[in-house]
Amino acid sequence: MTSRFLLTTLLAGAFATPAHADVLVDNFKGYTVGADGTVAQVGAMVLDDAGTIKAVYAPGQKPSKKGVRFHIDGKGRILLPGLIDAHLHVLSTGFAALTLDLSETTSLADALNKISAFAAEHPDRAWIIGRGWNQEKWKLGRFPTAAELDMIVPDRPVWLERVDGHAGWANTAALKAAGVTSSSQAPAGGSIDKDASGKPAGVLVDAAQDLVAKAVPPPSARDRDLALATAQRIFIRYGLTAVADMGSTIEDWQTFRRAGDANKLYVRIMSYAMGVDAMKLIGGPGPSPWLYADRLRLNGVKLYMDGALGSRGAWLKAPYADKPDTRGLPQLNQTQLGNLMSRAAMDNFQVAVHAIGDAGNGTLLGAIDDLSQTYKGDRRWRIEHAQVIDPADWPRMGRIAANGGIVASMQPVHQTSDRVMAEARLGPDRLRGAYAWKSLKGTGATLAFGSDAPVEKPDPWAGLAAAISREDENGLPPGGWQPQEKVDRATALAGYTSQAAYAGFAESRFGRLAPGLRADFIFVDTDPMSASPAEIRKTKVLETWVGGGKVWDAADPDAKGITSSETKPSKGR
Amino acid sequence: MTSRFLLTTLLAGAFATPAHADVLVDNFKGYTVGADGTVAQVGAMVLDDAGTIKAVYAPGQKPSKKGVRFHIDGKGRILLPGLIDAHLHVLSTGFAALTLDLSETTSLADALNKISAFAAEHPDRAWIIGRGWNQEKWKLGRFPTAAELDMIVPDRPVWLERVDGHAGWANTAALKAAGVTSSSQAPAGGSIDKDASGKPAGVLVDAAQDLVAKAVPPPSARDRDLALATAQRIFIRYGLTAVADMGSTIEDWQTFRRAGDANKLYVRIMSYAMGVDAMKLIGGPGPSPWLYADRLRLNGVKLYMDGALGSRGAWLKAPYADKPDTRGLPQLNQTQLGNLMSRAAMDNFQVAVHAIGDAGNGTLLGAIDDLSQTYKGDRRWRIEHAQVIDPADWPRMGRIAANGGIVASMQPVHQTSDRVMAEARLGPDRLRGAYAWKSLKGTGATLAFGSDAPVEKPDPWAGLAAAISREDENGLPPGGWQPQEKVDRATALAGYTSQAAYAGFAESRFGRLAPGLRADFIFVDTDPMSASPAEIRKTKVLETWVGGGKVWDAADPDAKGITSSETKPSKGR
What is the pLDDT of chain B when averaged over all its residues? Predict the structure, then answer.
């Protein structure tokens, strides 16, 4: 646990009589996922001084008051375990909140207006950085161009990431600053959109994005600290008490540690290093220990098998239905993938691989199958997104599940956002294997849910609603898309709690309300076990508690610099 | 303080009555440097549970026994504050100790025995690296062979450099790893020793050595962890309880943090990043906080103004006396130096610059003088080595000392090792400004002492002896070289304790025996305030204590994995 927190505890221990001062939490309607995956009701809890759950009581059971010195009155509200997002990008979420957001734009014109307004608001910024555009949503039928950006921002470089992070849109100043010209070659795994005359048109896809991205001045350490604080504030407002950071650089890790050292890490981060070199530098001979009272750990490594469906970077077994001349492409060949996975596995790092297309997922499952012969034991191989898997490959997934264990790390909201695009990309025959939550769970895989923020909002309530309904925020399509893949409420809640913890080797530390686990819990205004999907989407998080300390209170939304040492419940609250 | 250490404290607090359990240390003859730089005698100390000094008593004063539950009997021995080395290279010191030294071997059989013993001692070293063999001294009449090495180390690569560095001896595993085969061609200026059948026999001469040398893998994280543990073991045996690491890479820092996270950091490390990029990556927006109960901090940055005297890289105002065609050269021009120092100073990183020659030191003093106009306050600009400074520049040093503060970070043993070489390089007229400890202290500069290990042994006793005598280990020259620059015993002891702490902004945390400071102290067999320089050189360190915990005991030299949590004094000891 963090020094300052322990110090608090120590002083309590030293000057208080009796030595321990437990906390009773009662008068709430609580749910938790049990070790068996079913949902159980909880009526009261006793927490110890160190922020750990000592006892959990069913409704009607009488809690022991022995050693209890503090009381938290649930005021009859709904209480749940703190929610966990199994796949997002922590600093990017913070930076996204600090940069131009185009995710709500409905047309190219709308986007251009927002961009010019943002540029006017920030005359001091050398580069205009933004993200979230989606030409599909704009019904543009093509990529936007540099010329269109030049009309509104001719003087400064502009660099705008697509909603899925798999393409970037530059103006001429940015292309110039990056030295991208007609003669520029796209690197393997990427492409440069060109106009009729062969000039770069403005958009660069997948690996080619780096041609411009590397010309963007890197954020300073102060920028990173601000982004982390911003991201944590966003997470706790949604009721997230833990997240998996999918692709941590050494700079990201140093930012996490600065926050931990300053006792300002109040959302738990399970980190996956961006590639094997970062993994070796961050973790050294193996995964890090759990640091700062289980608030940070390097679990393993994040690798990329292929790209995304929207930008047609996802690697398919058969051509794209809406672009028959391409099947997308792998980011790594089979040998490279095997070597990287094996380098990680030999030192017991957990391996998490991004795979979207059915060819990407099939190849990855083959690689995992092979490696499982060498690297035995509890491995929990993670497939990030697992978006389109050929049903013919499901049995193999089941075989691995029964062996080293496999995690399907999926994002329910991607299904609702991608639906129309996915139908266009895949055509009708491949949809059975797309976003197939229930079927993948059926193979025996662990189903962990997340948001992929900042690609989507890190909103677990939208995710829970989508998971049980497969309807979007407008209730479309009624009854749900490919409804046979809906999951029940217990599975959905487990995907955001116990299973997301298991996916990060954290099930003995947090993710459920059970003795010995960290006291991470939330009070909300809606009962997710009985409310309609639409109501669940509107859930308001009233309080968020991490390690027995309150880090968010809707009644005091502007509380600053919340840290674990400032969060001991005060007597009689 | 580290979680585990605090936990110990917490439990003591929780279960013991009364809450605190102080430790009385008495029955010793103790010395400490006072805040005023004079040496005071100490007769007893009381430490608290957290390893901090609560009270210090003069000889004859009666210590208060209130709250005391443990006792450490000094048995009449000499007690000193833990010594501090203000300039060394932590991991290089460890790696040097992990390199097999064959220079004393008298026969091939003797060498083979030493090699196999070394291999057995270091099962986790991927490669066995050594140096110093000489087949002439062995009267072998031929080069040794790979086959002979294979007999004792068949499983791992072995690479051993000849005493003169002009040949290398490999085993078959090393030749295989390097891809050296019968068909390998020796590069120009090199040759490959071959057997009758034309196979590489094991020895590669001159330029050919690189064929194997380049195959030696860079140190792994495990190698670094081992090097750190080895270095710490060496330091505590010499009575060093804190060191300044002059030039930490991010890999070094990660190694320090791994040790801290595992509660295996028991020598305090004041880290100076190797250059500005490493500084920004390690420290972020500024110096790190003190971590792990004051066991680790990134203080600032290490820069290089020039090279060394021996290789004539040191930058002199006038030509070298023994090579009039050169004056050496700067590593940075004045603009580069100013920019780097300014980048560090603007974020309050401490700046430590290597400067050896009088031109290098003069230029550096000029740069500091300029920067002091912009970056005010307590800066403690550090000059590392400050070996040859033109007396004409001494007043400027005094001006800076009175302003932002300046540290002359010097290595007494360099003077005794370099004496003959320095006279040749500098000629008679420049010696007055060479290794001028007393004069530089006279300007008002803070005089901090170190070893520059592994360049010299990290032996503070040799340093103390040299500092007060300017005689080498053979007592030469009698009366001392440039004896006017000897320092008194108080100044020498301060240079290895209070001033070395001040040089690292640590004077309020450790470096003296005083209330509120960490209880870092040593028991030794020799009284440095009365013994002769020769006797001081032979000082045996009997026990080393860091933060109130014993980390080294000459009576139990093989104690393994000493950590702060294992070092609480047991009752009645």
Answer: 92
Judged by a CB distance cut-off of 8 A, whether residue B6 touches chain A is yes
Positions of chain A with pLDDT under 50 = 1-18, 561-573
Q: Among B243, B241, B169, which Cα is nearest to B205's?
A: B169
- The pLDDT tens digits for A278-322 are 999 999 999 999 999 999 999 999 999 999 999 999 999 999 999
Domains of chain A, CATH where assigned: 90-214 (3.10.310.70), 221-552 (3.20.20.140)
CA angle B377/B380/B384 to nearest 5° reads: 155
Mutation pick from B2, B3, B10 vs chain A, by most beta carbons of A within 10 Å, is: B10
Task: Say what the pLDDT of residue B16 is.
Answer: 35
Structure tokens at A530: 């009985």
Are A281 and B254 an interchain contact pair (Cβ–Cβ within 8 Å)? yes
Q: Which residues does chain A have within 8 Å of residue B17's beta carbon, measured at their own beta carbons?
A: none
Distance from CA of A271 to the nearest CA of B (A): 16
B117 touches A at CB < 8 Å: no
> What distance in Å separates residue B496's CA from the closest CA in chain A?
29
Taking the CB of residue A303, how many other CB atoms lie within 10 A of it? 27
Strand ranges for B254-345 from DSSP E? 268-274, 296-304
Report the number of secondary-structure helices (H) and strands (E) in chain B: 18, 24
- Across the interface, of A6, A250, A283, the residue whose CB is closest to B6 is A6
Closest chain B residue to the Cα of A1, Cα to Cα: B3
Query: CA dist A345 to A85, A286, A297, A316, A417, Å?
Result: 24, 9, 17, 27, 34
d(CA A362, CA A446) in angstroms, rounded, equals 18
Q: Of B375, B118, B419, B98, nearest to B230 (Cα)?
A: B98
Q: Is A3 close to B2, i.e. CB distance below 8 A?
A: yes
Q: Determine the residue of chain A that is closest to B226 in CA distance.
A: A285
C-alpha span between A53 and B26 (Å, rounded): 45
How far apart are the C-alpha atoms of B66 and B48, rounded to whole Å?
11
Q: Is the pLDDT of residue B13 over 60?
A: no
| Binary contact (A220, B285; C-beta < 8 A) | yes
Q: Do A224 and B284 touch (CB under 8 A)?
A: yes
The b-or-e profile of A62-81 (16+ CB within 10 A means b, else e) is ebeeebbebbbebeebbbbb
Measured between CB atoms, does B126 come within 8 Å of chain A? Answer: no
DSSP B223: H
Range 223-282 of B in CB contact (< 8 A) with A: 224-225, 250-251, 254-255, 257-258, 261-262, 280-282
Q: Which H helix or E strand runs over B8?
A: helix B3-15
Q: Give the pairing of strands B39-42 and B29-33.
A: antiparallel
- Tally DSSP H helices, then E strands, for chain A: 18, 22
Higher pLDDT, B426 or B566: B426
CA–CA min distance A224, chain B (Å): 9
pLDDT at B560: 53
- Does the ipTM surpass 0.95? no
